[in-house]
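Design review, sub-item: ligand-bound model
Attendees: FS, YL, KQ
YL presented the inputs for the iron/sulfur cluster complex:
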Amino acid sequence: MKVILAQHLGFCYGVKRAIKLARDSASPTVRTCTLGPIIHNPQMVEKLESEGVGMVQNLTEMTAGTIIIRSHGVGPQVYQEAEHSGLQVVDATCPHVKKAQLSAHALAEEGYAVVIVGEKQHPEVKSIFEWSGHMATVIESTEEASAIQPCGKLGIVVQTTFSGEKFKEIVAALIDKSSDIKIARTICTATDQRQAAAMDLAGSVDLMLVIGGKNSANTTRLAQLCSEKCLTHHIETAEELQDCWFNEVEKVGITAGASTPDWIIKEVYKKVQDMESLLQEESMREIKEHEIIKGTIVLVTRDEAFIDIGYKAEVAIPRAELAYPVPESATDVVSTGDEIQVYVVSMGGEKGVVLSKVKADKFAAWNDITAIVDRKETVQAEVTQVVKGGLVAMVLGVRGFIPASQLELHFIKDLSVYVGQTLEVLPIELDIKKQRLVLSRRTLLEAARDKKQAELFESLSVNQILRGTVKRLVDYGAFIDIGGMDGLAHISDLSWERVKHPSDVLTVGDEVEVLVKNFDPTTKRISLSLKDTLRDPWLEKADHYKEGTCVKGTIVKLADFGAFMELEPKFDGLIHLGELSEKRISKAEEVVHVGDEVTVKILQIDKKAKRVALSLLKAEEDAEKAEYNQYMAGQEEKTATLGDALGDVFQKLQ
Ligand code: SF4
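KQ shared the predicted structure:
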């Protein structure tokens, strides 16, 4: 609340002079009194009395001493009576009033019909009337002016504190009353100045306080003028001020009548200011401990920032309470003019008001995190340290905990590698009362993995060939990552050749081609094969042989049902017992032995069953047949030769 004093207020020149004269006249040995109250202010009268200047209403009350004529003045007979009574007279009549008195006297002496414009009961007007020789007519309205009878010479005198505007109107009403009008303009400019200043101020404030005696005409007039502009209270002292007047008032103006002492104005001014403080304290009481309020930074030093929170004084916030970690300088965190939120740690105690931006930020962060949790959103967490069972990570300035089990999809032995990293995490547990915030990265990884897996299964098809990376080797096979998910290649599917252990053919990290043998989105199992990406080498070999042809080979194994013969390494065929000999035999060894090199006929190549049926018997028969054919062919040649030889003979015989 702003308190503004009017530019012109309080004692005028005439009143100041009268008070000074009265005080100067005070004597411990001589009775000194004013004739009537020296000014229209009971407090001032009382004060003067305490200083040795009493008051009498009538000269008859004094037989000796000093009588002080007040600023309003008195008639000439009072001076005569005082002199007659042997009283010393101190004339404190205001020079302006004196001028009006003498003007009225002179006009009357010159034969003018004197009209005094002013309040009939005002002491000043009464004194002027007396100086006119009791011949004047007192008027204070245009109606009264109109009622004045025309006369030869009209002299007009006006009360010093009369309204200038109103005086003009009255003069206008008198102007036709005489052809010889003389006007003594005795209005005091102090009154006009005070009224103008009061009006000006009243037009710019919410409330005006007009200080002065309730019996003071000029103060009452001031109050009336001000009330035309804004809410106005006319008071005599500060004790009359009421708290309720100042509710929702931002600007208060103060003016005072000409008879209002400075000390009363000061008392009122101070009490209004105190009231402002009281109001502030009342509003301060609305600031409760443990709540978050807004304030404006008004000053920042290295060690602290001063904030205006609407309290009676700015409050200092040490830099340790401005930010966490503690900044090197408060200027690193806030600047003058910043509007920030602070937490009210304490409103009293040894340290007075204690505020914390760190705590306000933390509470704000908790609220933000609560909203984030409600929206099921992720946050960025900066990992600061490793603790038992997990990591500490800061989220929006709040300390959160990431359990080791919530960090990755797999077990992590050394958590320290995460310190200093910023991880995207999901708040999974929040308890503001316990200040507990649990975060999970694994949840996000699982969700991402599930999404990727769903997309992968969507794109998979049996016999599809993909590229993959060997992730892990186990006794029964190899786990191969085919783009977000591991499939298993059984040991039997690693190679066409027999594999004792997957490490015989693969190393973790190898990039390989795999064929999707099978998959199940429900159980999330994918069966892979490396060997099916290559042609079966048995078939490759089989392509080199034809059914019906005879080939050589070595007996490598005997069985109850026949003998196995190796056509070439890792390409065997079976000679069934019935294909070993024409004779009925019960064991193969009756015909062949391991290591024997024999020629057999390929009866059948079953590529599906990967079996080759051989026949020793058929090969022998073919050989015999070939031999016979060869023999027969030789015989034909001999026959032809005999014919050729006997040809000429036959021709001669013909
Ligand atoms: S208001 Fe003017 S006329 Fe009246 S006492 Fe003061 S100075 Fe004198």
